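re: the backbone from monday

yeah here it is again, tokenized this time
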């Protein structure tokens, strides 16, 4: 258990940031999965309309260091490739 007031505050801050990071990671994964579901259903119009939302969530996750910036670029590239491959 924390003894000093600064250690107690650090515990509170860590708990708050953990919730924020988990929410942002969940948002990024769910939007990415929505696009992938649309791709699997071969619904190009739906997938293209979800792309900006997915890009936004991926960029926010990268900005907050939840995922690495190169990982974000890889996810965006692969999503774009999959959406582009729908006939």
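seq for it, each position gets an aa:
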């Amino acid at each position: 258990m924390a003894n000093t007031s600064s250690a107690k505050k650090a515990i509170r801050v860590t708990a708050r940031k953990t919730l924020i990071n988990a929410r942002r990671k969940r948002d990024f994964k769910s939007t990415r999965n929505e696009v992938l579901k649309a791709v699997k259903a071969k619904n190009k119009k739906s997938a293209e309309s979800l792309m900006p939302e997915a890009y936004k969530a991926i960029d926010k996750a990268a900005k907050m260091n939840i995922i690495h910036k190169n990982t974000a670029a890889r996810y965006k590239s692969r999503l774009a490739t999959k959406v582009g491959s729908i006939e």
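The longest helix spans residues 5-40. The chain is about 85% helix and 0% strand.
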